[in-house]
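Reposting from the mailing list since nobody answered there.

I have sequence plus structure tokens for a pair of proteins and want to know whether others read the tokens the same way I do. The first protein:
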Amino acid sequence: MKEKGKIQIDEKYTQWKSLIPVIYDWFANHNLVWPSLSCRWGPVLDQGTFKNRQRLYLSEQTDGSVPNTLVIANCDVVKPRVAAAEHIAQFNEEARSPFVKKYKTIIHPGEVNRIRELPQNNKIVATHTDLPDVLIWDIEAQPNRHAVFGAAESRPDLILTGHQENAEFALAMCPTEPFVLSGGKDKLVVLWSIHDHISASTTDPSSAGSIIKNKKPSGGNNGKAADSLSEFCSVGDDSCLILWDARVGTTPVVKVEKAHNADLHCVDWNPHDQNYILTGSADNSARMFDRRSLTSSGVGSPVHKFEGHKAAVLCVQWSPDKASVFGSAAEDALLNIWDFNKVGDQGTTPGLFFQHAGHRDKVVDFHWNTSDPWTVVSVSDDCGTSGGGGTLQIWRMSDLIYRPEEEVLAELEKFKSHVIECSWRS
């Protein structure tokens, strides 16, 4: 069965590769020696005429022969309508991209399961590993390390304690305040404020390595977490979607039973409209809920069910560029882009308008670039394939795909007239 699935993925990949010049404005493929379970955009460092240089955060999940690492890279992001179609279609799957250069290595205590940057200062990142603690890193202050066997672990700038059991994946940052949110196997959702540490660390280097204990753990489930001002939500293996409000204590505001028909893996709150919440599940679907119509008992009633994956959905994220658009990544090696405003349109899969099939194995994480519209970084864990390691891809779909139809047709007509005029002159 696995072999059949691999053949289907390879066939889809071959078809996808032939379409790169048509459906992408820019694409870069970067082979990873070790898989990365997370990828995030950092700050823009430099703005050029044809490209911007930007930080990229990823990791190396090793086999123990060398240490696990948190990697800070510099990425040259080519601007829209600059890259030639023939150039983006030519790449070596087993090579590193010239657009991605490693800048700094941090030797991480254990595997890096999740990376999240602080929106108020994206040089500060939090990481989850196979431990109860959340680790906070000041990327610029941390020394560059050489990852060799036996090397000492880097020292985090801050350690957040409060979980009673391992907290491996559920991690989020508040968009408006320096709050860190985490979920763990202890069925707790824990919230910390690191405001004082950020203020102190800029003036007092001795504050590095501090430990902050949470004051009020919330009894919840063992799922992922997302944030929305003082409100947040969590999901877990109990198939529940739970909404919390830090202002009213540690009791759930709403608990939706059976939000999906299987374990829930991920959740995201719409940054444009706080009423909409996305979830992804082992039932191969993504669902959108409206918190104004959530039920506290019985089966949850999603506004839409998005069924375009053939394996468990591992990551969902709303687009920062359009309120109705989101992405979903899954174990079927696909990253689907959806628009819930297109659900009523004719099509085989309601709402699906773009499918990134550039990975050959499960897509474990992706991140929209808030500094460069419609640009995405995605990463796959390729250990299940013959090549092993992982694949990092940076890509931007052609704007002809998502712009209004009338606008696109007008541009194509103008281009057609230009071609005819040039042909007539020659």
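The second protein, same order (residues first, tokens after):
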Amino acid sequence: MSEVTQKDDGAIKGPSDEVTDPQALRALGFVQMLIEKMDMDAEVSLAPDDGEGSADEIRLEIEGPDAGRIIGKRGNVLEAIQYLTTRVAHKPGEPRKHIAVDAEGYRARHEDQLAEMAQKLARRVAKEGKVITFDPMTARDRRVVHMALKEMTDVRTESHGEGPDRRVQIIPVNKN
């Protein structure tokens, strides 16, 4: 991971340039404060641009001995930290950037596993012709499932439900 430090003028010195984005500064400062208040042994940094994110995304990475506690059961604590960070970083009148908070690469591993499971279940749906409905998922997880199966021609996906009870269904496509 690259070293990221905050300078006296408020800019964040990253791997190749200085970050002065007010949303990134607020997001980083908030997560740093949270980790300190939670008395966790972890560090937060702005993740370097790996070319896969968008210009409208701020990615924060948490690493350290307590990163597992920050992730929480099934990523619930990490999800809550991301939600709160988004609320703190966004101010009225500013263009909204997506804020992603990760710890020890949890999100990437989770998304890979979810996509793999969705593909396996989709093959079963195509073979057996029966709809499969996932348990409720976050918007991000639903998107992972939809994107993982978008190229499959023998199944389609739909989201149903409201709020925290929203679920993805994998539905067989009838070929007549």
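Reply #1 (J.P.):
I read it the same way you do. The chain has two domains: 5-104, 109-172.
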